């Protein structure tokens, strides 16, 4: 059994199409098909359900695929460990990040690259479900996500910060001069919020409901950048996580106002696979995270905006 055959199988399961899998592996389709047939012969089990096109994996094929992911991850871990022994980490750290944590990701990736200049980072904005799948299939080394996600299994968790929710509102708006606003008051403003598919939106909807209110935003976005694009101009208000201030700050003509309620929201942190093989790159990122002081950096940034009245 060759590692290349396992790589072809992983590509086929990912692409669900022989031609696309072959292109992803930079080989011809006949070469990829022949390699997988040889793998079936060597293991003496059918792996792929074939018809006029790819129809998925057999039950035996799914078992082989799970082992293929593990074996290829072992190969990557071996290469990373040997590279570190030769003089420093190399390779690419594959980091999945939920969209609402992306604005704070550079607090980890920048010091990681500073400490390991021969290594790189591949950053992907992914949903919680995609992160769970990526970790389970060894497609990610680590992820930055909500730590209370029940779908995360067999992972190590490292807290980074707790979300703190703020009202971002025009300086001439009715709540701009208050030291603290109620959620029910914010619900009466012309709002721009993330859409209901986003975990952050579902959390803040619970906060609105706890104050007897329901948010009815005129504009919804599936990204923080899309939300912020509507805020300059003095018309819209929004509820933001304080972590977004690291990347986007407070737009001109707006002010950030604390919202009544719990001082801290859900925890955001790093997760890595608990089982072997352990990614050397993920271990290096965890070490950086322990020293980065993400929580303190974000709290200090927020206090600077609250203190100067911006």
Mean pLDDT: 89
Apparent shape: elongated
Q: Detail the poorly predicted runs.
A: none
Question: What oligomeric assembly is this protein in?
Answer: single chain
* Percent strand: 15-25%
Structural class: alpha/beta
Largest sheet: 5 strands, mixed
How far is it from the N-terminal to the C-terminal residue, by CA? 63 Å
- Counting DSSP E segments of at least 2 residues, the number of strands comes to 12
Strand order of the largest sheet: 4-3-5-12-6
Helix content: 40-55%
- Alpha plus pi helix count: 12
Radius of gyration: 23 Å
Explain what the structure shows.
The chain contains 12 helices and 12 strands. Strands 4-3-5-12-6 form a 5-stranded mixed sheet, sandwiched between helices. The N and C termini lie far apart (63 Å). The protein has helices at 3-15, 18-24, 29-43, 59-87, 106-115, 128-136, 183-187, 199-210, 224-228, 245-248, 280-292, 294-308; strands at 48-50, 54-57, 91-97, 119-125, 142-146, 155-162, 165-170, 192-194, 219-221, 238-241, 254-258, 267-273.
């Amino acid at each position: 059994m060759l590692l290349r055959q396992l790589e072809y199988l992983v590509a086929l399961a990912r692409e669900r199409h022989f031609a696309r899998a072959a292109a992803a592996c930079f080989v011809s389709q006949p070469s990829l098909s022949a390699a997988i047939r040889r793998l079936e012969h060597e293991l003496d089990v059918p792996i792929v359900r074939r018809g006029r096109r790819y129809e998925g994996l057999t039950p035996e094929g799914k078992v082989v695929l799970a082992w293929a992911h593990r074996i290829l991850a072992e190969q990557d871990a071996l290469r990373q460990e040997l590279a570190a022994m030769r003089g420093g980490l190399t390779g690419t750290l594959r980091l999945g990040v939920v969209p609402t944590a992306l604005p704070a990701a550079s607090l980890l990736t920048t010091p990681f690259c500073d400490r390991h200049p021969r290594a790189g980072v591949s950053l992907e904005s992914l949903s919680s479900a995609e992160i769970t799948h990526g970790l389970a299939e060894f497609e990610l080394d680590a992820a930055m996500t909500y730590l209370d996600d029940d779908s995360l299994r067999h992972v190590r968790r490292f807290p980074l910060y707790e979300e703190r929710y703020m009202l971002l509102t025009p300086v001439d708006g009715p709540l701009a001069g208050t030291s603290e606003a109620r959620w029910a008051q914010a619900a009466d403003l012309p709002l721009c919020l993330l859409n209901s598919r986003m975990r952050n939106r579902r959390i803040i909807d619970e906060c609105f409901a706890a104050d007897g209110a329901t948010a009815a935003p005129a504009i919804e976005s599936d990204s923080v950048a899309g939300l912020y694009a509507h805020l300059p101009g003095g018309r819209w208000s929004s509820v933001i996580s304080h972590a977004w201030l690291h990347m986007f700050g407070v737009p001109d003509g707006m002010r950030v106002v604390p919202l009544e309620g719990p001082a801290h929201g859900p925890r955001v942190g790093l997760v890595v696979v608990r089982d072997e093989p352990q990614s050397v790159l993920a271990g290096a990122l965890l070490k950086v995270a322990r020293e980065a002081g993400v929580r303190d950096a974000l709290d200090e940034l927020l206090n600077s905006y609250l203190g100067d009245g911006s």
